[in-house]
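From: lab user (bench 3)
To: helpdesk
Subject: output format question, protein + 2-acetamido-2-deoxy-beta-D-glucopyranose

Hello, I'm new to running complex predictions and I'm not sure whether the block I got back is the full result or only part of it. Here's what I submitted:
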Amino acid sequence: MQPLSHTHMNGFPTHFFGLALVLLVSLASPTSSCTEQEKSSLLQLLAGLSCDHGLTASWRSDTDCCTWEGITCSPSRMVTDVSLASRGLEGSISPFLGNLTGLLRLNLSCNSLSGGLPLELVSSSSIIVLDVSFNRLTGGLHEIPSSTPAQPLQVLNISSNLFTGRFPSTTWELMKNLVVLNASTNSFTGNIPITPCVSAPYFSVLELSFNQFSGNIPHGLSNCSMLKLLSAGYNNLSGTLPDELFSVTSLEHLSLPRNWLEGDLNGISKLINLITLDLGANKLSSNIPDSIGDLKRLEELHLDHNNISGELPSTLSRCTNLITIDLKNNNFSGELTKVNFSSLSNLRKLDLLYNRFNGTIPESLYSCNRLTALRLSCNNFHGQLSERIGSLKSLSFLSLVNSSLTNITRTLQILGSSRNLTTLLIGYNFKHEAMPENDQIDGFENLQLLAIDGCSLSGKIPQWLSKLTNLGVLFLNNNRLSGSIPDWISSLNFLFYLDITNNSLTGEIPSALMDIAMLKSEKTTPNIFELPVYSKSPSFQYLMPSAFPKVLNLGFNNFAGMIPEKIGQLKAVTSLNLSSNRLSGEIPGPICNLTNLQVLDLSCNRLTGKIPAALNNLHFLSRFNISNNDLEGPIPTVGQLSTFPNSSYDGNPKLCGPMRANHCGSTEADKVSTVCTKGIATEVIFAIAFGAFFIVGVLYDQIVLSRYFG
Ligand SMILES: *[C@@H]1O[C@H](CO)[C@@H](O)[C@H](O)[C@H]1NC(C)=O
Ligand SMILES: *[C@@H]1O[C@H](CO)[C@@H](O)[C@H](O)[C@H]1NC(C)=O
Ligand SMILES: *[C@@H]1O[C@H](CO)[C@@H](O)[C@H](O)[C@H]1NC(C)=O
Ligand SMILES: *[C@@H]1O[C@H](CO)[C@@H](O)[C@H](O)[C@H]1NC(C)=O
Ligand SMILES: *[C@@H]1O[C@H](CO)[C@@H](O)[C@H](O)[C@H]1NC(C)=O
Ligand SMILES: *[C@@H]1O[C@H](CO)[C@@H](O)[C@H](O)[C@H]1NC(C)=O
Ligand SMILES: *[C@@H]1O[C@H](CO)[C@@H](O)[C@H](O)[C@H]1NC(C)=O
Ligand SMILES: *[C@@H]1O[C@H](CO)[C@@H](O)[C@H](O)[C@H]1NC(C)=O
Ligand SMILES: *[C@@H]1O[C@H](CO)[C@@H](O)[C@H](O)[C@H]1NC(C)=O
Ligand SMILES: *[C@@H]1O[C@H](CO)[C@@H](O)[C@H](O)[C@H]1NC(C)=O
Ligand SMILES: *[C@@H]1O[C@H](CO)[C@@H](O)[C@H](O)[C@H]1NC(C)=O
Ligand SMILES: *[C@@H]1O[C@H](CO)[C@@H](O)[C@H](O)[C@H]1NC(C)=O
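Helpdesk reply: Thanks, we reran it on our side. This is the complete output you should expect:
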């Protein structure tokens, strides 16, 4: 039976009655179902799937295909929608779908489909919306024969697949109705396509980020008179920002981060509709022009990792919709106080890390009461922290590393009232002051990360830290703290990263340290930083506290006594560094139970006895150092331990092995001298202080640095 078609209705007096009758007839008549041809096209799709997750149960050939799961039909029983997103489908996409002549929308996103995208679908004369994003489709997009009639396709989403090759050129000339092209997260090469702008009058979204497009931003952009979004970040684009780009005044979102683009921003104010401007990690130079104040709609301003210099224009205060200002890693200078921040009442994130701003921190900043993240680290600011910072009630992330701050007691007293603070990085300030004592500090109950490193602070590990019950990550390295590790340390139930390297701590390694809950179990905390925290070595970007490895760094102190047997409880630890202390006794056997260890450094102590053979159980170990102790016996010649270089074992005259002067069984002593005098050690750690342990809520991405400043 043929389905009722609209032509049957033409004779009826009014449209309303016609429609009512169609509904009545189609409900009443058992014969009105989809055609055999449409059914068979859909069954071809099914046949091409190697895994359909139960679709077969619904798609039965003896039933009307309009009733099948994921299928919608028109009143005239033509298939209009195939919606099978997130169905766990595997296999290929059948070209027979192109035979569904009434198909308007095809959504196969978020499956595991492979193979190519059939040309029949891209060139379909009915499909308006085609979404095959988040699959494993391969191959290239093919040129559509130029004889094909103009296509109705409006939305094409092929993002997050494995497509390769250059974009076809003539194809877009035929797509006169295209509005959205989303090809992000593939491996496309060649120039970015601008042709849709010329051929499709309503073309408004071009999303091409995370590909391998290269070359300049092509000519023809001035034809993109409806373009609202241009996104091509994380590609290999080069050349200068063309003037033509600044003529696309319809643009609301311009996002081209992580390319090699040069030039200046002098034309930017013509883009008066801009809401998002992201040109981070390029090679832009010159200044931000005063005319930036004309961008009244601007909400997101990302110009980080460029070479932009000069002052921040005071006109920025006219961009009253700003939510995020990210200018980190540039060459800005001058006094920030020239900008009146009090008009930026929507501001949530301000990141000025690594610039040369000077003067004081502007008071007007403290009226931005929606501010959640503030990073001013590594500029040339001077002066004291204002008490008014306490009025930033939403502040959750604060990083003021290396900002010439003095009086740590006062600073912590001011900040203690910021109840929402979760991340506080204030290292490399307060040079040679004393760590405040217990009764002086209050608050910080929500703090998850605290970094007071590199301050040369004297005093003890303060007891007020025991009240920070949410603390997960604690940096106190590179100070002059003395005394022992307090027993209350085990009451910090969320602590999983403790770095107290390079202090003057004494006593034994307390067994309380072995009772820290998070170091014993694989559990993590699910929180997220407001801004990414970076460390140089390993060169990582941490978006959330739990992404930090579980670390216990006690090196370069004066700890003495034996390594406790209970160390075997710290099963979750990935990095254990006890080097350069005065530890004696044997390497405890239970250390071999720490099977998550990637780094184990016991060097420069006074350890004796044999190397436990079971250390070979530590399969993830990639850095291992037991040099400069007084160990004896053979160096393992098999397993994980045999893969480490001689230097991991040097300075143990009684160790023997085939690669050493001291062959096992002979009596000749190893001649390597000891290099663990405190003087040298301190020098070493000072080199490292600004390198390996400079974790400061700072963008210190090695790759980025060498790329832009190296
Ligand atoms: C359906 O599509 C396939 C593949 O595109 C084609 O070979 C076939 O001729 C079409 N069948 C009909 C009936 O149109
Ligand atoms: C396709 O379906 C997914 C999941 O329902 C949805 O998120 C997506 O927006 C749809 N695509 C289009 C173009 O509507
Ligand atoms: C694909 O892109 C379209 C248009 O940009 C969008 O509407 C759709 O939601 C996207 N699909 C998914 C699964 O995100
Ligand atoms: C492009 O598609 C991705 C899904 O792969 C989606 O997350 C994104 O929002 C889309 N972009 C635009 C601009 O529609
Ligand atoms: C594209 O813009 C150029 C000028 O920038 C103009 O000469 C040309 O006619 C435009 N093409 C179309 C198809 O509008
Ligand atoms: C990036 O582009 C440059 C020229 O602009 C080229 O030499 C280089 O091979 C490209 N790199 C990749 C990964 O495509
Ligand atoms: C940065 O720009 C200045 C001029 O403002 C220039 O002298 C310098 O060479 C540039 N640096 C880099 C790394 O491009
Ligand atoms: C920063 O700008 C100054 C001039 O203002 C220039 O001498 C210096 O080279 C620039 N720094 C970098 C890293 O480009
Ligand atoms: C800030 O630096 C500028 C030069 O960039 C200098 O003229 C000015 O005096 C400095 N201001 C202060 C307070 O140091
Ligand atoms: C403080 O943080 C809590 C939890 O994240 C949030 O609900 C609350 O709104 C924040 N307070 C302010 C003043 O932003
Ligand atoms: C530091 O600030 C406190 C007030 O919090 C004050 O009592 C103390 O005298 C200050 N110390 C110095 C050295 O200025
Ligand atoms: C490792 O732990 C198990 C129990 O978790 C224990 O029985 C065993 O003795 C430990 N091994 C060493 C070498 O301590």
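A quick orientation on your result: The first strand starts at residue 49 and ends at 51. Let us know if anything else is unclear.
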